[in-house]
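quick one, 264 residues, struct below
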Amino acid sequence: MLQRLLDGTRWPALRRALTRVLPVPLLRSDVRDVIYMTWWVDARHAPAAPPGYRLFTHAGRTPYTVLTYRHGHFGPAFAGPLRALFPSPLQSNWRWYLLPDGDAAATPVVLFDRNVIDSVAHAVGARLFSDAMQPHWPARFDHGCSDDGWHTRIEPGQGSAPALQAQLVPAAAWPADWAAGAFADPPQALAFLACQEAAIAVSADGRTALTHIDLPIALPQVQPLRLVGRTHCPRVADMGADLADAFCFRVPQVPFRVVSERLV
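---
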């Protein structure tokens, strides 16, 4: 029943008509334990970039990132102190990186590939009220501290969420060769992969939605990680990437805001 409701076309048309008059409310969350895992994949696996943008590539490859985190009372900013009553779901964003045409020095824009959230209320709400965020709801979603490191586990069950299992531990240093000439050094790679101000998604009916976000990550606080054990991620493996060869790091905590959303 929910699937039929969420895949309908009448509600998105009504919602879009309303948001031409009423602005989308600003959303806030105090996210924590943000784990980034990035692989170089062949650029041919990426979708076509929307008009006005181009896929970031280096030597025929492009970075693909899976980042997972715990929200901190994700809800509308106007709720004020009452936002503490809102839940703190787990979320995982799977994404590509775009640059505006003709501006190689610009801040990259995220192109969403998949989004996963473990709260059915947030999943349904996002599908109903957002074009940019169309999350999948998995059968099982675990993310957090584990022994001396961190773990992430996503099991899609009968749903459409991507599968993931990863175990990470602190690394003594940043990998010296991961950038492969695409970035001058690890700090530049960190800034590129983590510091964005906008995200793009293609809705179910083919429209392109642009979301502006505020994510003030303090790069000196970012911690290097490395994968250990067996990593399971069929989507990335199907792109031909070596799952063990990932650039991984953790952002302990950061305030997050969804500022605006519009169709372009």
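The longest helix spans residues 10-19.
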